[in-house]
Protein FAR1-RELATED SEQUENCE (Camelina sativa), 781 residues
Amino acid sequence: MVAKAYPVRVLHHNNGVSEDEEGGSGGVEPYVGLEFDTAEEARDYYNAYAIRTGFKVRTGQLYRSRTDGTVSSRRFVCSKEGFQLNSRTGCTAFIRVQRRDTGKWVLDQIQKEHNHELGGETQVEETTPRPSRAPAPTKLGVTVNPHRPKMKVVDESDREPRSCPGGGFKRFKGGGGGEGGEVSDDHHHQMQQSKAVTGTEPYAGLEFGSANEACQFYQAYAEVVGFRVRIGQLFRSKVDGSITSRRFVCSREGFQHPSRMGCGAYMRIKRQDSGGWIVDRLNKDHNHDLEPGKKNDSGMKKITDDGTGGLDSVDLIELNDFGNNNNHIKKTRENRIGKEWYPLLLDYFQSRQTEDMGFFYAVELDVSNGSCMSIFWADSRARFACSQFGDTVVFDTSYRKGNYAVPFATVIGFNHHRQPVLLGCAMVADESKEAFLWLFQTWLRAMPGRRPRSIVADQDLPIQQALVQVFPGAHHRYSAWQVREKEQENLRPFPSEFKYEYEKCIYQTQTTVEFDSVWSALINKYGLRDDIWLREIYEQRENWVPAYLRASFFAGIPINGTTESFFGASLDALTPLREFISRYEQALEQRREEERKEDFNSYNLQPFLQTKEPVEEQCRRLYTLTVFRIFQSELVQSYNYLCLKTYEEGAISRFLVRKCGNESEKHAVTFSASNLNSSCSCQMFEHEGLLCRHILKVFNLLDIRELPSRYILHRWTKNAEFGFVRDMESGVSAQDLKALMVWSLREAASKYIEFGTSSLEKYKLAYEIMREGGKKLCWQR
């Protein structure tokens, strides 16, 4: 027998008689086979059951048909399911209803046991009373939770015409009720279509016709609860560039401004295949006091629809006058740089230019009012370093991780000693696409002749958009700290077994094919095909998964780790304005002193050889000390591997190289006898620019006693600082080439001056060397 169930005290549409009065099944215990007309009816029934039992209900996952995209099943869970909040205990109680071909919904899975005490939790979440038939009132009214402020919904006949210019948003009003507890059938369909005109609190599964409608709903909810809303991140499809999801956050989210305190409250919506939008993630908890009824008018932001129901993040526009039909709209951008910083920095830049003719700085101006925005600067040493080591850069915005007083960002490269070198500094006014676009274009203008092949930067959409526009073709790799932060946030509710297999899949797979295969098996094993976060990070795998990063050159930046801040503890969140310049210069000089020490050691110290291979002596002569030690380690390790030829056709051969005593550690090496080209499945050369132990083993087997020149990158050699001028394949213009030569000679001359003035004897030696060199250049005093 299949029973029809309705929640306790829910009204039927046809007769307005309560289920209790009919003696129906409203009070029955849930069981497999229980039938409902709609999924909402099942949710209402489970809420009623929860009231009697003593727990709260949340809307859980939904599943869609692969054929037509319609919802095929839904889960309703205990509010203590999961571990995302301290109040949750990982309770597994739930019901699942599935849609049948008849259109009915049948309860097909159930778990009644809770892992926490029941009782005392009779408040119903996300339950909307069923309407009875009644004449349509002038104004709409809904019954809301008695423990929360009532919400009044007004239609277009309301006396207060406060609407957003871009949509039909009806504002919630605090206080007053409505027309009792019922809604007329004439307006019932409208209310289902537009959640912006209901008194429902946000919950996972709430649907909207457009992203703008979702934004308006959340702003109205925020006004009633007592907080303000900011527009957060959006994500775009890599297929067609359309917006796929959007976040709306509490205005106190983050720490970029003194008024912000890292509030974690937010609502995220996801675009559905049908074109609608659904709330898929939600956090209602704030870490600050709320002010119910607080108006959002003064700080209200409007967002424009992009034509696909998504939200355009390029500009936020502020509404100056809500009561005027001809609203004046102007572009506004936040500036997190204190006004007192500009005169300090500009005075410093001007003084530096008197000492360093190659010193470069630029200030972004707000064209609307002429005020200063972002700032960029680089001295001649940083500009010269970019010509040498600008192939891989890190855009370090670690100030975003904490409550820093000033948004100080750096552009970092890695030199021939694998040390970080400064390529530029910036104060970032805000985190808009415009700010980052200006910053990257300015940096590129200051650093002629070199475009990065790979960039490590945060994954926020404004940064992604700016990078794609300024550096097309560069491989953008996400910052490791941000990847780990999002993993910690989203993996928390998963079992430890899944986390272990997840880590193994990410960090132990060697090829993209292997990763895709292991990932698919992992997702299928745990039934996570519909998990939105896992689906998103898989779509972005080229930007963070090691197997996809190995094919691009990253100058040895560890895949699994992060890079330390260039200025370390010298500049932190508490650095006062009056000490910024002195600490900046002191830390910069310390870094450059470390680089000079490594230069000296590489030219004057010789490491011991550990083999009798000619390639070891060749590389000791060419590489810097740090790089040679890495190569030497790979050469020594190659003796622990066995090499077996598995294929040969013409000049092409393939070898299987595996470690002795470890059958699982093996790699494939392809070798061409015609040009000595080699490649290995580990891709160490592609990623770090140094040959791996596997190729070195094959070279040893084939008696190749000296490395081909193509496998010794000039950037890793002792004279990397001066060899770039010989590289005419970079395609630099004659003007840029002359600038590079000027910087190179100036850097060399500065070293003569530095060492030549340390004593009278060294001065005489330096002067004699320069005089003899001048004769060869036909330059006479």
Notes: The longest strand covers residues 662-672. Confidence is low (pLDDT under 50) at residues 1-25, 121-198, 297-330. The CA atoms of residues 301 and 351 lie 42 Å apart.
